[in-house]
Amino acid sequence: MTLYIKNMVCARCKMVVKSEFEKLGLQTVSVELGEVELQDEINDAQKEILLKNLQSLGFDFLDDKKTKTIEKIKNLIVDLVHQKNGELKTNLSDYLAENLNQDYNSLSNLFSEIENTTIEKYFISQKIEKVKELLIYNELSLSEIADLLNYSNIAHLSNQFKKITGFTPTSFKQLKDKNRIEIENL
Questions:
Q1: Are 133 and 81 in contact (CB under 8 A)?
Q2: Three-state SS for 139?
Q3: Pfam families given for it (predicted)?
Q4: At 29, is the pLDDT very low, low, confident or very high (cuts 50, 70, 90)?
Q5: Where are the beta strands (DSSP E) in 33-107?
Q6: Taking Cα atoms as reference points, which of 102, 99, 103, 173 lies closest to residue 133?
Q7: Under DSSP, is residue 62 helix (H, G, I), strand (E, B) or coil?
Q8: Cβ count near 122 (within 10 Å)
Q9: pLDDT class for 35, splitting at 50, 70, 90?
Q10: What kind and span of H or E run contains 42?
Q11: Class in CATH terms, 123-185
C-alpha cells in the first residue's frame, strides 16, 4: 500500500514521517519525498490516527491525482535543487517529463492551474532560496555558487537574485535579517 504525503521536502521530513509510522507499529517498505510504501494495508482507525499525528507536524495526506502530481513535481524540483546541488544534465521540462512519465505541457498547465505560478518560477524560487542559504553559510564564492546551481555565469545569478529578492547577493550578505522562506511555503 502506498500513501502520498504533502509537504515532505527534505531528508529530515522523511525521518519524521517514518518515525510516525513506526510509533503506530506500521512497517514501511520505503519512505521517499511525498510517498510512503507500507508492507501491509492499514485500517481506517490507524489512518485517522496517523493523519492527526502527521497534520500536527505540518504534513497531510494527498488523495486526488492532480494534487499528487503537483506534489511530485515540487518534490522533484526540491530534491534537484537542495539535495542534488543542481545536477540537472538536461532541461527542466525534459527532466520532469521523464521522471513523471507525462507530457511536460500537461504538467505545466496543471501546475499553473493549481499553484497559480509556473513550474519555472517555482524552480527559480527554489534556486534563489538555495543561493540565500549558501550566501549565509559564507563557504563558497558567488562564482562557486553559480557553478553549483548551473547558472551560466555570475551576472545571470545576480540578475535573477535581484529580480526575486530586490537585493544583489552582496547586499543580501550584508543584511542583519536575512529573510529566508521555508521550502514548503514557496
A1: no
A2: coil
A3: HTH_18
A4: very high
A5: 35-38, 60-62
A6: 173
A7: strand
A8: 19
A9: confident
A10: none
A11: mainly alpha
CA separation for the pair 151, 146 (Å, rounded): 5
Domain boundaries of the chain, sorted by first residue: 2-62, 65-121, 123-185
For residues 143 and 133, give the distance between their C-alpha atoms in angstroms, rounded to a whole number: 15
Q: Is residue 40 scored above 60 in pLDDT?
A: yes
CA atoms within 13 A on the CB side of 85: 6
Grid cell in block for residue 22: 513506526
Amino acid (1-letter code) at residue 163: K
CATH for 2-62? 3.30.70.100
Q: What CA–CA distances, in Å, run from 67 to 4, 30, 72, 149, 152?
A: 10, 21, 9, 28, 33
109, 145 in Cβ contact below 8 A? no
Contact between residue 51 and residue 61 where contact means Cβ atoms under 8 Å apart:
yes
| Rounded Cα–Cα distance for residues 148 and 103 (Å) | 28
